């Protein structure tokens, strides 16, 4: 019994140290970009020898992968919490879009820090693509809820879910860069009007 408790304590301590390294690595990668960042930079920032980093990660690429994966998982958890809320489907869709764009706005600097290295851009895109199916699934759940409550009328559920997911993804960078001073809430409200009511005038 004592061994189990001790083992859990060691694992928890190891997890906390790894989380600390990932947090610091995220900041360093954002500041200098993937290409210019070295493991020495990160080890100095966490005040540990480089050998300590190799205990948790095989290489700089391995560390970078875990940083990006962690960010993707945080986003997924936040979006899933929105889907589980007991609120009106339209409001839920709004909160979903708001959450996605807010977190993306915070992450865009980190993602762009690696744009000079095409290998890492592909690397990030692969991780993003891995999570797109989850996002389509979550949008579907919101749409299905709206259909059941007679709020939405959707003929092709998959197509609409893909369309909304793609539209949100396409807005991440523009709303983070070109419209940095524009109210994100107003932008999301305008997007939601188009998604729910279309562009055509009604008689």
Folded structure, characterized:
- This protein is mainly alpha-helical and 203 residues long.
- The chain has a domain of 137 residues: Tetracycline Repressor, domain 2, CATH 1.10.357.10.
- Helix content is 80%, strand content 0%.
- The chain contains 8 helices and no strands.
- The mean pLDDT is 82.
**How many E-type strands?**
0
Taking the sheet with the most strands, its summary is: none
Order of helices and strands: HHHHHHHH
User: Could you please say which CATH topology of the domain at 61-197 applies here?
Assistant: Tetracycline Repressor, domain 2
Summarize the structure.
This protein is an all-alpha fold. It contains 8 helices and no strands. The chain has helices at residues 2-36, 39-45, 50-56, 60-83, 89-112, 118-148, 157-176, 184-197.
Q: How are the secondary structure elements laid out?
A:
Blueprint: H1 2-36, H2 39-45, H3 50-56, H4 60-83, H5 89-112, H6 118-148, H7 157-176, H8 184-197
Helix pairs in contact: 1-2, 1-4, 1-5, 4-5, 4-6, 5-6, 5-7, 5-8, 6-7
Structural key phrases:
8 helices, 80% helix, 203 residues, Tetracycline Repressor, domain 2, mainly alpha
């Amino acid at each position: 019994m004592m061994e189990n408790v001790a083992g859990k304590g060691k694992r928890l301590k190891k997890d906390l140290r790894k989380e600390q390294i990932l947090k610091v690595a995220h900041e360093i990668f954002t500041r200098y970009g993937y290409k210019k960042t070295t493991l020495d930079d990160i080890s100095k920032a966490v005040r540990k020898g480089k050998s300590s980093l190799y205990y948790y990660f095989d290489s700089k690429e391995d560390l970078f992968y875990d940083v990006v994966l962690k960010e993707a998982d945080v986003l997924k958890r936040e979006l899933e919490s929105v889907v589980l809320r007991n609120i009106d489907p339209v409001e839920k869709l709004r909160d979903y879009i708001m959450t996605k764009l807010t977190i993306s706005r915070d992450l865009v600097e980190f993602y762009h820090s690696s744009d000079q290295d095409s290998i890492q851009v592909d690397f990030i895109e692969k991780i993003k693509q891995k999570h797109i199916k989850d996002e389509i699934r979550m949008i579907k759940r919101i749409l299905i809820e709206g259909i059941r409550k007679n709020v939405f009328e959707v003929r092709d559920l998959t197509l609409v879910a893909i369309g909304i997911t793609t539209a949100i993804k396409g807005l991440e960078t523009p709303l983070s860069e070109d419209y940095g001073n524009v109210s994100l809430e107003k932008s999301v409200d305008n997007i939601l009007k188009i998604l729910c009511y279309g562009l055509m005038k009604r008689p």
